[in-house]
Write a structure and sequence with these properties.
382 residues; 11 helices
């Protein structure tokens, strides 16, 4: 059907209402000749896809079309009657992104990228500040607390005790000096011989005014008594016996012979540490120093220090390699020496001390044992 035929058909219906109805029916019917004449009559821009048209501005407001500006489009001009005059869309400019083709968001990195082992570049220690965050530090919850001194002392004592109980006997040179009844005794050198099990002690004075003196104590051979052989005297004196804790036996010593030896020092210190840990304030405070080489020593040592509430200061120096005592020293609050024992040249597992008569006073002294002096004074029978 030609355009002339269209208008003839419209005029044939007569009234404008019927003519408009005919136009709608012709459009709905999809008449191809009429569609071919659509573009020239109404403009090619009307045939553009719907999504390419920018939405018009609100009529009568005069506001700019922000949506069109985001699309890099120029909104149509406003005519006085309020009807916008369509303009051909300008071609896309630089940076234009069609709505119909959205740009996909960048995909997240693959999980493997995060799990890939990456080596950090080496850090020059000269260029790192003392508190630089580049220094590797463990997390807060993994920072270990410094070891407790009491626990550390316990471990040292345990090592020394294990060492001593693993040997049969030992011999050590002892330099000692003690304050007894407010009187400082002269320093002397003694050879200390100890059998570990059953416990036995033999003290010998090789030099000095008490040269030749010997004292024996054994849990099995001495019947619980301390046996004494004096050195050379103008008048020979037979060997005698004393109770280890008798006043006469302690007249020139602060400790009974039953406490002689290295093992007692270690076990006593361990017991004191346990009492302090349990809350006993009477023993004061313990600290541990070292390892270092103290003055007058040639080996690396640990020092167990104790300050009592009364002000006494106790110092125990232990060989770090063997955990055995090298020095025990105590001073009064005013600095006066209370006692000092310096152990040197220890020898272990000697055949001589393993002999059956090494700590037997009857064999050692070669004569019958006299009655105890303290019992003779009181007239008690043996």
């Amino acid at each position: 059907m030609t355009s002339g035929q269209h208008w003839s058909e419209i005029r044939r219906h007569g009234s404008p209402r019927r003519a408009l109805t005919a136009v709608v029916l012709i459009m709905v019917s999809g008449c191809a000749p009429f569609q071919k004449t659509w573009g020239p009559r109404f403009g090619e821009h009307r045939l553009a896809p719907a999504h390419e048209h920018a939405p018009p501005v609100e009529h009568g407001t005069g506001l700019s079309d922000s949506y069109a500006s985001r699309l890099n489009r120029t909104p149509p001009p406003i005519v006085p009657n309020g009807i916008p005059t369509p303009e051909p869309l300008s071609p896309p400019g630089s940076g234009f992104v069609p709505i119909a083709t959205p740009v996909p968001a960048p995909s997240p990195p693959e999980l493997e990228d995060h799990l890939t082992d990456r080596s950090d570049p080496p850090i020059d220690p000269k260029g790192v500040e003392p508190h630089s965050t580049l220094v590797s530090r463990p997390p807060e919850d993994e920072v270990s607390e410094p070891p407790d001194d009491l626990d550390a002392i316990d471990r040292v004592m345990d090592l020394g005790i294990a060492r001593l109980t693993s040997i049969q006997n030992y011999r050590v040179t002892l330099d000692r000096q003690e304050r007894v009844r407010d009187s400082l005794q002269p320093a002397e050198q003694v050879v200390l011989n100890v059998r570990t099990e059953p416990f036995a002690v033999r003290l010998e004075w090789p030099d000095g005014p008490n040269r030749g003196r010997e004292v024996l104590y054994s849990e099995t051979e001495c019947n619980g008594m301390m046996h004494i052989k004096l050195g050379k005297t103008l008048i020979p004196v037979p060997p005698m016996q004393l109770e280890p804790s008798s006043p006469l036996a302690l007249s020139n010593s602060r400790h009974p012979i039953t406490e002689a030896g290295l093992l007692h020092i270690l076990t006593q210190t361990k017991e004191q540490v346990d009492r302090v840990r349990s809350g006993d304030p009477s023993l004061g405070n313990f600290t541990l120093e070292g390892p270092h080489v103290p003055d007058d020593f040639e080996v690396t040592c640990l020092e167990v220090l104790r300050r009592t509430p009364e002000g006494e200061f106790w110092r125990l120096v232990v060989d770090q390699a063997s955990s055995l005592p090298l020095l025990l020293e105590a001073t009064a609050p005013d600095g006066q020496l209370l006692e000092r024992y310096h152990f040197q040249d220890i020898q272990t597992d000697l055949e001589e001390l393993a002999a059956s008569d090494a700590f037997d006073p009857a064999v050692r002294f070669g004569r019958p044992i006299a009655l105890p002096i303290d019992r003779l004074a009181t007239g008690q029978p043996e």
